[in-house]
Structure formats: structure tokens, C-alpha cells
Design goal:
Elements (H helix, E strand, L loop, with lengths): L2 H8 L3 H9 L6 H14 L5 H8 L4 E6 L7 H17 L3 E6 L3 H9 L6 E5 L8 H6 L4 E4 L10 E4 L1 H14 L4 E5 L3 H5 L3 H16 L3 E5 L6 H11 L5 E4 L5 H10 L9 E5 L2 H7 L2 E3 L3 H16 L7 E4 L3 E2 L11
Helix pairs in contact: 1-2, 1-3, 5-14, 8-10, 11-12
């Protein structure tokens, strides 16, 4: 497959195809999309070495993954796999960095020709890496939102809206005292954006509806004691949101052991994968990890080609109602 074949398929000149692939000149969005679609349809693969020399690019992006305490690895890896797969569709490879490499790791890869651009996951509200990202001279995308996203490109699931939707659903069913069992304490202590935004949305919506709201961080090994203490100390509690996938089944077991049946005595909503929530019969909001990872790469590729992208992209939540959240009789 030659560049002339792509040009003929897209109805443009070979030089236009070359400009789209190299990013050396501004090309209209419509023409760029048509060329990239022809590239994918025909399976065109430019010679990597020649393209790198011609464009002064490595065709590699860095992906900073958070492998540290309190992080649920399956969700992280789902996002990472989606990012790698999408990058390959753009003829780019991915260099994995860990969170522990911190500012030094970003400076190291940006100070060489190792990568063209950077994706950073697990963003904290006051992340120490942000000043470096703003100054590196490399396109970047954050999966997550800091407290001040000025000058940055951020994408994530709308955790604040998800927390709010859970509280609103329980309030609409007649619950007057509800709780969020959230991420492990270490996640909150770091000021991790997704956990804080879920909590903020949950508490705001509950306050707006005149509902008492409690928040309890939870380590997976402490699920039983967390459930026992919560129900003991708050006997009026009738609705619970679980945003901590590894604790879901232990918590449900602990609720039953405490004599609180779901849904007869206790309504439960999970922010968790659909397949797990469906198996457990729980009303849920799924985290679209695949979409977040894929769209982060698409935003980065658009920036690499010299085009403007939105500063903020939030994927909306979708509440799936199951048998765990019936309406309270008499409300």
C-alpha cells in the first residue's frame, strides 16, 4: 500500500496525505478526517523510520499509570489497554511510566526524543506535576481534573455528576439518611480528583434534597467492620452508595450479617462495572474506562496535528435501575 493509494481513496493529492500524517501544514478538519479514515480502511502503514526522520517525531506517546496504594488496578488497566489500542490505530506506540517516577520521569522523557506527547492518569486536585506539564513544550492530556485546570486538556468520567445522580435517586425514592462508602483512605489523603468529585456531587445533591449524607472511606480488608460500625452508629440509614469495587461483595455480606436485607431494609447503588452490578442485582452507574482511554488518545492526536481541542471533556453518567433500589412505601 502506497501513499498514492491513500490519496486516490480519499480523493486528495499525495502531498495532502503527507501533510495530514506529518502535521507539517494546517489541513481542514473534514479533509483530515477523510484521509485518516482512508488510512485505517486501507491499512496503510508508513515506514516508521522514514516518517520519524521526515517529521522529527518518534511516533511514541508516554502514558503515566497509577500503580500505588488504593488504586483499583483492573479499571486502570482497562483504560491503559484502550489507550494503547487507540494509539496503535494512529500508528503510535506507548511508553508506560509509573506514578512513582513523578516529575523526574516527565522531565526525562520530555527532555529527549523518546516521546511526542504525554497522557497522565490519576490526577490529584493539587498535583505537583501540573507546573511541569504546563512548561514541557510537549502536548499532554490529563485523565482526571485538578482543582485548577487552566491551560490543560482534561478528560474524565463525570464523577461529580455520578455522585449527585446516586444521591438524587435515593432521595427521590424517599430515603432521608444515606451514605457513600468510597475509596480507601489513602486515595482521599492524596486529594485524588475522582474520589473528591464523587464525594462533592453526592454531598451537594443530598443537601439540595434535604437528605442527611455520610461519607466513609473504606479499605477492602476493612469492609466488614466499616459496614458494621456504619449501621450500628446510624440506625436510621436506609440507602448506601458503594464507590469501591473490591468492597462490594464483602459489604453486602456484612449488611446481611447485621440483619439488614437488600432491598427490603437497605437500598444499595454501585458505581461499578455493569457486569458486576448486574450479577449482584444492584442499581448502578458504570465507569466508561474504555471510552475515557480511547478519547484521551484521540484528543492527544488532534493536538499533535496542531488542531484545537476542548479544555474539558466530561463523559456523562448513566444510571441503570435494578431491584436493589425500590421505592419506599408511603413516600
Amino acid at each position: 500500500m502506497k501513499i498514492s493509494d491513500v490519496a486516490r481513496h480519499a480523493g486528495v493529492s499525495p502531498s495532502t496525505v503527507s501533510y495530514v500524517l506529518s502535521g507539517k501544514r494546517s489541513i481542514s478538519d473534514e479533509t483530515r478526517r477523510r484521509v485518516l479514515e482512508s488510512v485505517r480502511t486501507l491499512g496503510y502503514r508508513p515506514h516508521a523510520g522514514a516518517r520519524a526522520l521526515a517529521s522529527s517525531r518518534s511516533n511514541v506517546i508516554a502514558l503515566v499509570v497509577p500503580l500505588r496504594s488504593g488504586i483499583h488496578v483492573p479499571v486502570v488497566m482497562q483504560m491503559a489497554i484502550a489507550a494503547v489500542t487507540t494509539a496503535r490505530s494512529y500508528d503510535h506506540d506507548v511508553l508506560l511510566l509509573t506514578q512513582d517516577e513523578g516529575v523526574g520521569g516527565l522531565e526525562r522523557v520530555a527532555g529527549t526524543a523518546l516521546v511526542d506527547a504525554i497522557i497522565v492518569m490519576d490526577v490529584e486536585l493539587h498535583d505537583v506535576r501540573l507546573p511541569v506539564l504546563r512548561s514541557l513544550g510537549r502536548p499532554s492530556v490529563l485523565i482526571g481534573f485538578p482543582a485548577d485546570p487552566t491551560g490543560l486538556t482534561c478528560i474524565d468520567f463525570d464523577f461529580e455528576a455520578a455522585g449527585a445522580a446516586c444521591a438524587e435517586h435515593l432521595a427521590d425514592l424517599g430515603h432521608r439518611e444515606i451514605a457513600l462508602i468510597g475509596a480507601p483512605p489513602a486515595v482521599y489523603e492524596r486529594g485524588t480528583g475522582f474520589a473528591e468529585r464523587t464525594k462533592t456531587g453526592f454531598q451537594r445533591a443530598a443537601a439540595d434534597r434535604g437528605v442527611r449524607a455520610l461519607v466513609r472511606p473504606c479499605d477492602p480488608q476493612d469492609a466488614r467492620s466499616t459496614a458494621t460500625e456504619l449501621l450500628r452508629d446510624h440506625p436510621g440509614l436506609t440507602g448506601i452508595v458503594i464507590h469501591n469495587e473490591p468492597t462490594m461483595e464483602p459489604l453486602l455480606t456484612a449488611f446481611r450479617a447485621a440483619g439488614r436485607r437488600v432491598p427490603d431494609d437497605l437500598s444499595v447503588i454501585a458505581i461499578a462495572p455493569d457486569e458486576l452490578a448486574e450479577r449482584l442485582g444492584l442499581t448502578s452507574i458504570a465507569i466508561p474506562a474504555d471510552d475515557v482511554g480511547a478519547q484521551a488518545v484521540s484528543l492527544l492526536m488532534t493536538k499533535l496535528e496542531g488542531h484545537e481541542v476542548p479544555g474539558a471533556t466530561l463523559l456523562p453518567p448513566r444510571l441503570v435501575i435494578r431491584s436493589s433500589t425500590p421505592e419506599i412505601p408511603g413516600t
